[in-house]
Design brief:
- This protein is of the alpha/beta class.
- The strands form 4 sheets. Strands 1, 2, 3, 6, 12 and 13 form a 6-stranded parallel sheet that branches.
- Helix 3 links the parallel strand 1 and strand 2.
Length: 295
């Protein structure tokens, strides 16, 4: 009894945004932290880097899922077939290329908010067909290109409706604001949505590799990435919080980089349960039956 009272007293010091978030987990019967790690492979450089990253993670026993645009899947089919054969799960990430090389660096292209809805749906369906053709299995989840630009409630609902029609079980295509409003996972149009989240100190800023690159031309990952990563895990442990760490990176941003490697070694060292996207969705599916959300 005293231990329970002490635990409740400690939680008084948790920032309100994280208190609401973790209370949702408690109410749904999740009592320990878990980790859903995914990789966005928006350039051809991510293919070879992905092989190295997966080898490193496999040694640590950490699962990962890959979101690869159809164009990059076609360009690097042998590598991605190898990863799929090794058990890596793939998300539909649209078909059109998400970047182009301007002579010095990759620049972003293909934004769903700039496209008609029928063109967005065509891009999603073409990517689905490409994954089935090249990898020989259907994707189970979805993430939009540059998804931070396609976040209005009707836009998210539209994506979920298309995903449901393709037989997917989940998507991870929303920003932290959705997690703090609807919970770490929520049900929308038959799809379990797994919003990405931020860090303990910056909850609304996605803890991804792009945000924490010290050099966006030569891809040097800042030490801040590890510091925020470690702080979040440590605070969750301190307050005995059942966090769902839904984070992603680009393989070419993190391969061989000390801040990322230390972060993953910390995950392994703390014995966090790690999930593929579909496993994470399955963990939530029964708990979310009948739940309402803002989408």
């Amino acid at each position: 009894m005293l231990a329970k009272i002490y635990s409740l007293l400690k939680r008084r010091f948790i920032p309100p945004v994280w208190r609401r978030y973790t209370n949702y987990l408690f109410r749904n019967g999740i009592s320990s932290p878990c980790f859903f790690l995914s990789f966005d492979c928006d350039t051809d450089a991510d293919a070879a880097a992905g092989i190295e990253v997966v080898e490193f993670l496999s040694e640590l026993g950490i699962k990962a899922s890959f979101a690869v645009p159809g164009t990059q899947l076609v360009n690097n089919r042998d590598i991605y077939r190898h990863l799929a054969a090794s058990g890596i799960e793939f998300l539909n990430h649209g078909y059109l290329p998400h970047t182009e090389w301007d002579g010095e660096k990759y620049i972003a292209r293909t934004f769903y908010n700039e496209m008609p809805r029928d063109a967005v749906e065509e891009d999603i369906r073409k990517a689905d067909a490409t994954i089935r053709d090249i990898l020989g299995c259907p994707p189970k989840g979805f993430r939009a290109p540059h998804f931070g630009y396609f976040q209005k409630t009707d836009e998210v609902a539209f994506m979920h409706t298309v995903c449901a029609s393709l037989g997917y079980t989940y998507a991870s295509t929303t920003l932290p604001a959705y997690a703090f409003e609807n919970g770490p996972a929520f049900l929308s149009h038959g799809i379990v949505e797994l919003p990405v989240i931020g860090s303990w100190s910056s909850p609304h800023t996605i803890l991804d590799s792009w945000n924490y690159l010290a050099d966006r031309v030569h891809y040097t990952l800042s030490d801040t990435y590890y510091e925020l990563f470690a702080e979040t895990l440590i605070m969750a442990e301190k307050y005995a919080l059942p966090m769902l760490f839904c984070w992603y990176a680009d393989p070419s941003h993190v391969v061989g980089q000390s801040p990322f490697m230390k972060a993953m070694e910390l995950v392994a060292g703390k014995g966090l349960a790690t999930y593929s996207g579909s496993e994470c969705a399955a963990l939530w599916a029964g708990r979310l039956a009948g739940a309402s959300c803002a989408v």
